[in-house]
């Protein structure tokens, strides 16, 4: 990755001495060394004396009626300690995020391929798997509903019906028309989170009849509450301890591991461990919503948008999960970061017998970004304008209205971002016909010829909301304690690879001037902090840590200020030293503490939001963030192979809190977006997941990762956010697939209306 050292770009700010600290510094993660050396303890590494091993039996059918389950043979196998089915769930038989519509174990009906039927605990992992395979299940196979368009008229697949949510958005005059009208049909495939480490966990029964769950959770309190309800226990008798999370982008937000593990531990009275195979991981967690989008854009002769009409259909799979939230984002952002006076959208999320869909970074926003940017390219072609110029004439700014009627009150430097990527130098073309200067599409040993390669440049603008939406109670609690020269942070915010623990250390270092800061592991004995999703923890948990640290700062400085007859505001802390405004007072934090222990607990709760009404109107979002990407691709127009040469990124970040982390998060997000653009598509014909492994589901590797050039980071602080910072991880994921598609369109002249881009979509047939 290259980083441009220019106005607003990432720059390294290193402190004097051995270790940088504080806001604005590239503070390294305390976990980095252990993770690179392979010594960091993940959930799959857990161990307990006398543990048993769990295995789960899953349905081979996407839709079937269960007529009989016989566990006798499995239970009689030597070494098997327990076999559980739906009849053995003592509490709530259903669970789910937001909507409790998913059974712990299917009892009468199977609704998707891989749905859990039973769980086994045995003294050896092979015994557990053999016992699960020995469970006899008789099915009456039913015709699956796999086309979301047919779900409206199909027989109900669930007692709650097939329609999960319908959002109509009405903004402006329905009779408005433009001089230029373009239409498009777009499809976005099923992306898997594909975590580095598959799901794993350990359940340990407690003497009081409760249970402790050691899992890679991203929302321990929600997991505790769901699990306790299924166990038939009070929440205080279930403890969730967060173990090492090997990456998380939505796949950790379900109870597919916690509940069966806890039930087996409670039944056997022994610790029980589960480590999913890669196939089980693909079948067990939620994926990005496959989406069908129909668009009609109206513009005037000058290229200014007049009206956007859209129909958006999200395939939720078998259960609701986060589909309502994803649909709200898709409908609200259906016109993109553009000023459009008239917007009319119909959005639906429906159940099918396809694999479940749920929260995956940028859900809803990514799908519509691919569609509205395809429409902008069509308009540019019709109007004879440069794609960047057309976008520039329509960009959103602070003070403009979203189609939901909400005023954009946060910084929205969309035009500045677009100008930055537009004006950045393009990567040079290879000189001459020397094949050694070309890295051909298709890889290092690509079969193409340089003469068949066409270069394309494309642009995309993306936006997402940060924090939860539509009335979600976003709150986090943190405690900061200082004693013997060390500060300790207690906060249940989960470090899922997004860098929260590093940020928490930086905040305390900045506010209190204490370099030695430790962040305790997360568990449910701590107050709730909410899920590690939707870029929440930079804002709400970082805000809680900042407030608690400032309260401790006041406790530290107040006696000193009173002694010298001045206010606390006249004292500053920097590099471990306390000084007064006039320089008369100068001492150290350590001397002022003098062995005292100071602590404070604080909450951060952003302003409330509204649920979208019957016309899709309402102040549904706390904050917004924006991104511009320029993609440069080489396309072999004979083979349809695509190589991403470079992605230039300009992003709205509020304030850079950790330069290296910001750069790393943007690079990671862009690379995930490239995977969505070119290769990641979890196929499930007739509801059966095909090749659920990392061979059948290709991911971008180091050889596929493009050169990511951060050309500008706009640091216009959001006054509502702690330190003015905005989250950086999700919006490049949303924007980069649309930019790659735009670049392939530019190179080939083909419409490119499907993600991921199939080779046949990039082949240009010679004229006959």
TrEMBL record:
Ranges for domain Aldehyde oxidase/xanthine dehydrogenase a/b hammerhead come to 37-143
Pfam families xrefs: Ald_Xan_dh_C (PF01315), MoCoBD_1 (PF02738), MoCoBD_2 (PF20256)
Gene3D superfamilies xrefs: Aldehyde oxidase/xanthine dehydrogenase, a/b hammerhead (3.90.1170.50), Aldehyde oxidase/xanthine dehydrogenase, molybdopterin binding domain (3.30.365.10)
Q: Where do the segments described as Disordered lie?
A: 1-27
- Reading the lineage from the top rank, the first entry is Bacteria
Matching entries from PANTHER family are given as: XANTHINE DEHYDROGENASE, XANTHINE DEHYDROGENASE SUBUNIT D-RELATED
Name of the protein described by the UniProt record:
Molybdopterin cofactor-binding domain-containing protein
Q: Which organism is it from?
A: Actinacidiphila polyblastidii
């Amino acid at each position: 990755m290259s980083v441009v050292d220019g106005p607003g770009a990432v720059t390294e700010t290193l402190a004097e001495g051995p270790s940088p600290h504080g806001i604005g510094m590239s503070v390294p993660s305390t976990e980095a060394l252990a993770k690179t050396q392979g010594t960091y303890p993940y959930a799959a590494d857990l161990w307990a004396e006398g543990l048993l091993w769990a295995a789960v039996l899953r349905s081979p059918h996407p839709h079937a009626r269960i007529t009989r389950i016989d566990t006798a043979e499995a239970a009689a196998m030597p070494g098997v300690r327990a076999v559980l089915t739906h009849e053995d769930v003592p509490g709530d038989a259903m669970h789910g995020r937001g909507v409790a519509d998913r059974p712990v174990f299917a009892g009468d009906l199977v609704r998707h391929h891989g749905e859990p039927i039973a769980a086994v605990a045995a003294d050896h992992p092979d015994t557990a798997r053999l016992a699960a395979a020995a469970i006899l299940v008789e099915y009456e196979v039913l015709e699956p509903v796999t086309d979301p368009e047919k779900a409206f008229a199909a027989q109900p697949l669930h007692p709650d019906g097939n329609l999960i949510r319908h959002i109509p958005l009405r903004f402006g005059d329905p009779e408005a028309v433009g001089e230029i009208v373009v239409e498009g049909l777009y499809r976005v495939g099923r992306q898997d989170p594909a975590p580095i480490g598959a799901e794993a966990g350990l359940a340990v029964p407690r003497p009081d009849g409760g249970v402790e769950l050691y899992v890679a959770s991203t929302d321990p309190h929600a997991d505790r509450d769901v699990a306790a309800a299924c166990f038939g226990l009070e929440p205080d008798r279930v403890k969730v301890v967060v173990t090492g999370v090997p990456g998380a982008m939505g796949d950790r937000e379900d109870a597919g591991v916690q509940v069966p593990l806890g039930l087996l531990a409670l039944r056997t009275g022994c610790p029980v461990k589960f480590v999913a195979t890669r196939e089980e991981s693909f079948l067990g967690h939620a994926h990005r919503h496959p989406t069908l989008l129909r668009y009609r854009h109206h513009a005037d002769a000058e290229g200014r948008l007049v009206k956007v009409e859209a129909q958006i259909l999200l395939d939720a799979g078998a259960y609701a999960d986060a589909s309502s939230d994803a649909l709200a984002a898709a409908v609200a952002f259906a016109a993109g970061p553009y000023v459009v006076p008239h917007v009319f959208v119909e959005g639906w999320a429906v159940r099918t017998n396809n694999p479940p869909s749920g929260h995956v970074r940028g859900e809803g926003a990514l799908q519509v970004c691919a569609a509205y940017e395809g429409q902008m390219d069509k308009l540019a072609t019709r109007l004879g304008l440069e794609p960047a110029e057309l976008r520039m004439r329509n960009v959103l700014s602070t003070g403009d209205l979203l189609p939901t009627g909400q005023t954009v009150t946060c910084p929205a430097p969309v035009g500045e971002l677009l100008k930055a990527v537009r004006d950045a130098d393009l990567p040079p073309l290879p000189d001459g016909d020397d094949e050694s200067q070309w890295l051909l599409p298709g890889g290092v040993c690509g079969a193409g010829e340089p003469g068949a390669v066409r270069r394309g440049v494309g642009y995309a603008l993306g936006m997402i909301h940060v924090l939860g939406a539509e009335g979600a109670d976003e709150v986090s609690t943190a405690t900061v304690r200082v004693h013997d020269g060390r500060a300790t942070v207690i906060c249940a915010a989960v470090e899922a690879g997004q860098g929260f623990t590093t940020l928490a250390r930086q905040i305390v270092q900045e506010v209190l001037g204490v370099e030695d800061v430790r962040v305790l592991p997360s568990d449910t004995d701590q107050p709730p902090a909410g899920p590690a999703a939707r870029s929440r923890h930079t804002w709400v948990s970082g805000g809680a840590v900042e407030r608690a640290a400032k309260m401790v700062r006041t406790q530290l400085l107040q006696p000193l200020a009173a002694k010298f007859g001045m206010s606390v505001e006249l004292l500053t802390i920097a590099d471990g030293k306390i000084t007064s405004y006039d320089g008369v007072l100068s001492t150290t934090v350590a001397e002022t503490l003098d062995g005292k222990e100071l602590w404070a607990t604080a909450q951060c709760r952003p302003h409330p939001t509204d649920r979208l009404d019957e016309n899709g109107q309402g102040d549904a979002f706390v904050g917004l963030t924006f991104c511009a990407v320029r993609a440069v691709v080489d396309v072999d127009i004979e083979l349809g192979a695509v190589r991403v040469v470079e992605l230039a990124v300009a992003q709205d970040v509020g304030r850079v809190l950790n330069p290296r982390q910001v750069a790393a998060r943007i690079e990671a997000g862009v690379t995930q977006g490239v995977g969505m653009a070119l290769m990641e598509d979890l196929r499930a014909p007739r509801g059966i997941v095909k090749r659920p492994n990392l061979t059948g589901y290709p991911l971008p590797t180091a050889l596929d990762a493009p050169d990511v050039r951060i050309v500008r980071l706009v640091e216009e602080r959001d006054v509502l956010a702690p330190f003015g910072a905005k989250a950086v991880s999700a919006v490049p994921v949303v924007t980069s697939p649309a930019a790659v598609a735009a670049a392939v369109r530019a190179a080939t002249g083909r419409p490119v209306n499907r993600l991921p881009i199939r080779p046949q979509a990039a082949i240009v047939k010679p004229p006959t």
